[in-house]
Automatic annotation (TrEMBL), chain A:
The UniProt record lists the keyword Oxidoreductase: yes
Xref: InterPro entries: BFD-like_2Fe2S-bd_dom_sf, FAD/NAD-bd_sf, FAD/NAD-binding_dom, Metab_Enz_Cyan_OpOx_G3PDH, Opine_Oxase_asu/HCN_bsu
Pfam families: Pyr_redox_2
CDD domains from the UniProt entry: GlpA-like_Fer2_BFD-like
Protein name (record): NAD(P)-binding protein
Keyword field: Oxidoreductase
Lineage: Bacteria, Bacillati, Actinomycetota, Actinomycetes, Micrococcales
Annotated GO MF terms: oxidoreductase activity
Domain FAD/NAD(P)-binding: start-end pairs: 3-325
UniProt keyword Glycoprotein present: no
PANTHER family per the UniProt record, alphabetical: ANAEROBIC GLYCEROL-3-PHOSPHATE DEHYDROGENASE SUBUNIT B
Automatic annotation (TrEMBL), chain B:
Gene3D superfamilies: 2Fe-2S iron-sulphur cluster binding domain, sarcosine oxidase, alpha subunit, N-terminal domain
Domain of life: Bacteria
Protein name stated in the entry: (2Fe-2S)-binding protein
GO MF annotations in UniProt: iron-sulfur cluster binding; oxidoreductase activity
Keyword Oxidoreductase: yes
Pfam families given in the database record: Fer2_4 (PF13510)
InterPro entries documented for this protein: 2Fe-2S-bd_N, 2Fe-2S_ferredoxin-like_sf
Alphabetic keyword roster: Oxidoreductase
């Protein structure tokens, strides 16, 4: 029996598991979280307000399918190494308390793997963004959904993309006063992305409008062409400066105004978590707007036996992830792409891919954002590296720049600042963006002792 | 209800919450000392490592990923 | 005199500066730019402790002394944006576990005879110097002259200084030589031809390939080394601390994985754990075996490391010659070609002295160093080429 490993328990991974089971494979699904669902269905049985969940019935159905199909489910499992060879795929994980000491080691050897590692928020730097009280939009959402707490009493949400709307809604439901939602993109861009060919959006436009309505009911202003361009405060957030922006996301002089708040949630889209795919050797596609795992119609990557689905292949939302996952899992298990059982997912995938393109057109990051930075604005939060430091070393190779400035060398390994640093390097005349920032051979933190424990058992040593 | 200590001070939270959830719920925003001042939760999903704390003597635990357990001893980390 | 230096790693940058300061017109050619490969993928060791008596030890002693002045000069004369070398004369401590004491003492005795300072430490001194070291350590020798730089930054500082002395950097790949067979008159590159009186091959692990493109034969191969980096933490390691098995690995020709423990802190607060050596060509798939073996040995040396977190790992390719000696000097068959390569894991430390020998070979400037053991014409190199 073919063994399919699935890396990630969000919508794409769950759908992949279901697809692989349907095609007759043995399935192991691995996720670092303590529960299945990924970020989209992040939850806790006792703490989550059900009004904050979306399409929850689909989650329950998928979870049921896994249990019914006898899939091996490993949660709280951090995969820190992934290797592909002609013999198959080997994932190494430690299982136990998050960042615990002396967790147990688990190796998963499989014939194929579906990389469904998803994405995380991309929060662009803003002067003052290291002040306590500034979080990503995803953090505000996660704390609201998983822990039932609000990041602040008065919260300003700023960034771009439809995700800001459910975040604001969640904040309101857990008791925060949401002072405003600032969508950085301007109306013409939004209209260009959202309005034409509504049939391609498959209900997404309706969802969007529904959220805008929900915000109105909570009396939350939704402003477009507007953004937080500075965070104010001494030891913590005391307010923000918001400004109107031009089409390139440059703040328009004279439009700045101060708004009092104690929390700021920033989200300018999403960045795929590529490190596992890169460790497995997968080719990456894309440009300065984003790099993703390259896949074909059957979600195959450039490496035999390695498939990818969901946000690692393009930011398309949960519906796209579900469709891609279903295809990836089914084909990884040996099923055929033209199998009648895949007709639904294949059609859904086509629709959702159109949505991804339009999302980028409406909400994609514009290069003028760097003009809201000061020279001494910290870009790399871990190592406190300023925009000036990066710009001054922009003319050397990326690796040398990182070592000279320490940008991206800290505990997050450039996950938070990578895209912003690349943008500053590029506008300062430096090297074109490359996968350099995404290559992280240690996929997740692992204790030296946990690594040392493998020395005795690894025959190659 | 669970009780943990943060740098010796008692903090209450709800059973099942992450350490970050307990701290944010208690109105705390900064619990680590970085080069530029206080830091707390930023990404909330284990990516940014801004919320690191020591838990029961073990360094480098992401507060947003670790479920709080009654009696946990949480201590501030100071970036050298 | 016009000189093309191929490679903008530590060796190319050091040679460019030495040549430019001595009046040559220098053009540095590199396919990616400064410190794009090996020099940004190593530890920055300036060691004498690991050198057995012989010509390389002599070179290391001279180079170690030269680094002190050089680093001070680079750091003092530093325009905005140029990184500091992070030179630190922290000293090394080589330790032996039970059973290894005699070998370590014999080695240190032989080193003292060549002028390397090696001081025996008693248990009390060791406990003060490295309070977190394993109590199982049976013997320790301190090498006060061991030092380090941040290798990428030091390379960037060297090249930036060379450029201020009039050198030029061209980002291009060398595709062939100019001139006639046996007499090089410059290089062809992807950015066009560059005429030169002398070409210096500083292409590190790729220097054999570069030599071939220039019509010469040079047997330089890559050896892969992996290094582990922990998350930042309060400082608990105060010197470079090695297990004495380090000494055995450097000179070995065995292709299989070898690891020996080197543990040290960096100014960024991280702890570096090295190092492994594997002869696997330019294979980038390191697997976990080297990391696991190094982690196990590091924990034996410093038990506290068991609980610390691995942040990242990186690897680089080190250039080595079949007889494990650096290759410095004129090519015996192609006139106008000079090599400066084959320094294996010691290139950062040996760069200033190597650059002085290169200046001697190219410009005839004086040197107190003996160039003969490193000449590309030596028997140990030609027999296998």
């Amino acid at each position: 029996m073919r063994h399919v490993a699935i890396l990630g328990g969000g919508p794409a991974g769950l759908a992949a598991a279901q697809g692989a089971l349907a095609a007759g494979a043995r399935v192991s699904l691995i996720d670092e979280g303590d529960r299945l669902g990924g970020q989209f269905w992040r939850h806790h049985e006792r703490l989550t307000d059900p009004r904050l969940q979306h399409a929850w019935h689909r989650f329950e159905r998928l979870r049921g399918a896994l249990a019914g199909g006898g899939a091996q489910v490993l949660v709280g499992a951090s995969v820190w190494s992934a290797e592909a060879s002609v013999d198959g795929v080997r994932l190494r994980a430690v299982v136990g308390d998050a960042d615990g000491d002396g967790r147990s080691a688990i190796d998963v050897d499989a014939d194929a793997v579906v990389v469904a590692t998803g994405a995380h928020d991309l929060a662009l730097p803003v002067p003052g963004w290291t002040l306590p009280g500034v979080t990503t939009a995803g953090a505000a959402q996660a704390l609201a959904k998983r822990d039932g707490v609000a990041v602040g009493r008065r919260t300003v949400v700023s960034g771009s993309g439809p995700f800001l709307l459910p975040v604001a809604h969640s904040l309101a439901l857990v008791g925060s006063h949401v002072v405003g939602v600032h969508e950085t993109s301007r109306m013409p861009a939004l209209a260009g992305g959202w309005l034409p060919r509504p049939w391609e959006l498959a209900g997404k436009a309706g969802e969007f409008v529904g959220y805008v309505g929900a915000l109105a009911r909570h009396r939350i202003p939704y402003r477009t062409g507007s953004a937080v361009v500075r965070v104010l405060g001494r030891d913590r957030v005391e307010g923000v400066v918001v400004a109107r922006l031009d089409a390139d996301w440059r703040p328009m002089p004279g439009t700045e105004r101060e708004v009092a708040c104690d929390a700021v949630a920033l989200g300018h889209g999403f960045t795929p978590r590529l490190e596992a795919a890169l460790a497995l050797g997968c080719a990456i596609d894309g440009d300065h707007r984003g790099r993703f795992v390259a896949v074909d119609d059957a979600q195959r990557t450039s490496v035999a036996g390695v498939f990818a689905a969901g946000e690692v292949t393009g930011i398309g939302g949960a519906d796209a992830a579900l469709a891609e996952g279903a295809v990836a899992g089914f084909v990884a298990a040996g099923g055929a792409l033209d199998d009648p059982r895949l007709r639904g997912p294949v059609a859904a995938r086509r629709r959702t891919h159109a949505f991804a393109t339009r999302l980028e057109r409406a909400h994609g990051i514009r290069p003028g954002w760097t003009s809201w930075l000061d020279d001494d604005t910290i870009v790399c939060r871990c190592e406190a590296v300023t925009r000036r430091a990066v710009a001054e070393r922009a003319d050397v190779p990326l690796r040398a720049m990182r070592l000279a400035t320490r940008a991206g060398l800290g505990p997050c390994q450039g996950r938070t600042c990578g895209r912003a640093v690349e943008a500053i390097v590029a506008e300062s005349g430096g090297a074109a963006a490359s996968v350099g920032f995404d290559r992280r051979p240690v996929l997740a933190p692992v204790r030296i002792g946990e690594l040392a424990a493998l020395a005795d058992t690894d025959p190659r040593t | 209800m669970i009780r943990i200590t943060v740098d010796g001070e008692p903090v209450q939270g709800r059973e099942g919450q992450t350490i970050a959830g307990v701290l944010v719920g208690a109105g705390r925003t900064a619990w680590r000392t970085a080069q530029t001042g206080g830091r707390g939760v930023f990404c909330g999903i284990g990516v940014c490592h801004d919320c690191l704390v020591s838990v029961n003597g073990v360094e480098g635990v992401r507060a947003c990923r670790r479920e709080a357990v009654d009696g946990d001893r949480v201590e501030r980390e100071v970036r050298p | 005199m016009r000189v093309v230096v191929i490679g903008a790693g530590i060796m190319g940058a050091a040679c460019a500066l030495a040549l430019a300061e001595r009046g040559a017109e220098v053009v540095v050619v590199d396919r990616v730019g400064v410190a794009g490969e090996t020099s940004s993928r190593c530890e920055g060791n300036l060691l004498v402790s690991d050198k057995a008596p012989g010509p390389e030890a002599d070179l290391a002693i001279a180079s170690n002394a030269m680094w002190r002045d050089l680093a001070e000069r680079l750091d003092a004369d530093r325009p905005a944006g140029q990184p500091a070398t992070e030179f630190e004369a922290k000293g090394g401590i080589v330790v032996a576990f039970a059973g290894g004491e005699a070998a370590l003492e014999r080695f240190a005795d032989a080193q003292r005879a060549t002028g390397i300072r090696a001081e025996a430490m008693d248990a009390a001194a060791l406990a003060i110097a490295e309070p977190f070291l394993s109590p199982e350590v049976a013997r320790a020798i301190r090498y006060p002259d061991d030092a380090q730089v941040q290798p990428s930054n030091a390379t960037q500082a060297l090249l930036a200084t060379a450029l201020r002395h009039g050198a030029r950097l061209v980002i291009a790949e060398v595709t062939g030589g100019l001139g006639r067979p046996g007499r090089l008159a410059g290089v062809r590159t992807t950015a066009g031809p560059i005429a030169a009186d002398v070409v210096v091959d500083c292409a590190g692990p790729w220097s054999g390939e570069v030599a071939a493109r220039l019509g010469a034969r040079l047997d330089i191969r890559p050896r892969r080394g992996v290094i582990l980096v922990t998350t930042p933490m309060p400082q608990r390691v105060f010197h470079k601390v090695y297990d004495s098995d380090y000494v055995g690995a450097v000179g070995s020709g065995d292709a299989a994985l070898q690891t020996s423990t080197v543990v040290e802190s960096t100014p960024g607060g991280t702890v570096l754990i090295g190092s492994s050596r594997e002869r696997v060509g330019f294979d980038e798939r390191t697997g976990v075996a080297p990391a696991a073996a190094m982690a196990a040995k590091a924990v034996r040396l410093f038990p506290f490391l068991e609980h610390t977190t691995l942040l990242r790992s990186y690897f680089g390719f080190r250039p080595y010659a079949p007889d494990h000696l650096p290759v410095i000097g004129p090519d015996p068959e192609v006139a106008g070609l000079v090599h400066a390569t084959g320094h294996e894991g010691a290139g950062i430390g040996l760069a200033p002295a190597t650059a002085e020998l290169v200046a001697h070979a190219v410009l005839g400037t004086p040197t107190a160093l003996d160039p003969r053991p490193f000449l590309p014409s030596r028997r140990g190199l030609r027999e296998t080429a």
